[in-house]
Automatic annotation (TrEMBL):
Region called Disordered, residue ranges: 254-275
Protein name, per record: Transcription factor domain-containing protein
Domain of life: Eukaryota
This protein's record includes keyword Nuclease: no
Organism in which the protein naturally occurs: Hericium alpestre
TM stretches of this protein: none
Gene Ontology MF: a single term: DNA-binding transcription factor activity, RNA polymerase II-specific
Length: 275
């Protein structure tokens, strides 16, 4: 059987979609991550325009290699990179709180330093059209309105996750009383929280009612409640809309540890004879 370039690209997209669902299930529902180490050296999907229109050639991108700062960069790749950084930090912090991971100060300090460096590298790799600016925001909104491809959706979700990761990073610094490496020691946790909340809220506000129809609203609201930032009146409105849409109380998601259902053994119709 001969596989075409489209066949290979679709296979890569299926692989990375499953990986993304695994990460987000762990982040928002505390679903356990697979114990078996996965091969994450698979090439990342190409950018959305190339995938749908094949208008140009693209450079190969990989998860742990900074993205090329070009116009034709994988939006899914950027989303996967920041989601992986966020999930890695959350996994370490949760393990520390639950007593199943490194609880000593030195281990958390290493996690904080690694996360700061990873986020800095990720931000530096962003091309102008995927940075969070007023110009790029308007561009991505116009693309989101036409539903031309998944690029705009990836853009909004990656910046929500980036802000969410900054919230977790700020709390981790406070836990070990270490100031941000890129800010003076007097920089307060409250300022970091406020800036992150403003970014998340600006994204959801820009998207309007469309945000509640998918993962974007969950990704936006869960970290706000988790870090004690859910007291804004508009957040209460979005939460009510989420409850009406999906039939669950959003603030309960992040603090309800959900164990995966155990498979039930069916009674066998075959009886082992006695010897």
């Amino acid at each position: 059987m001969i596989f075409t370039s489209i066949d290979r690209e679709c296979t890569r997209r299926a692989f990375w979609l499953l990986r993304f669902l695994s990460l987000t299930s762990n982040l928002y529902y505390d679903w356990p991550m697979p114990q078996k180490q996965m091969d994450l050296t698979v090439r990342l999907p190409v950018d959305e325009t190339s995938f749908e229109m094949s208008t140009h050639s693209t450079l190969s991108e990989y998860l742990h290699v900074p993205a090329p700062r070009t116009q034709w960069v994988s939006e899914i790749g950027h989303l996967l990179r920041v989601c992986t950084i966020y999930a890695t930090l959350e996994g370490i912090l949760r393990g520390s709180e639950a007593g199943t991971g490194p609880a000593d100060r030195a281990a958390i300090e290493v996690a904080v330093q690694d996360t700061e460096q990873a986020l800095s590298t990720w931000e530096a790799s962003l091309a102008d059209h995927v940075k969070f600016t007023d110009e790029s925001l308007q561009l991505q909104l116009s693309m989101f309105e036409t539903s031309s491809n998944a690029g705009a959706w990836c853009y909004f979700l990656m910046h929500i996750m980036h802000a969410s990761c900054l919230l977790s990073l700020s709390d981790a610094r406070s836990q070990i009383q270490v100031p941000p490496s890129s800010q003076p020691s007097g920089a307060s946790t409250s300022k970091t929280h406020q800036a992150a909340r403003e970014r998340i809220m600006s994204i959801v506000t820009s998207l309007g009612s469309r945000a509640k129809n998918n993962l974007l609203l969950v990704a936006a609201l869960v970290p706000l409640y988790k870090h004690g930032l859910g007291d804004h009146p508009q957040i209460a409105i979005w939460t009510k809309e989420f409850e009406d849409m999906w039939g669950t109380k959003l603030p309960m998601l992040f603090n309800t540890s959900r164990s995966p259902p155990q498979p039930q053994r069916r009674p066998s119709s075959f009886t082992v004879p006695a010897f």
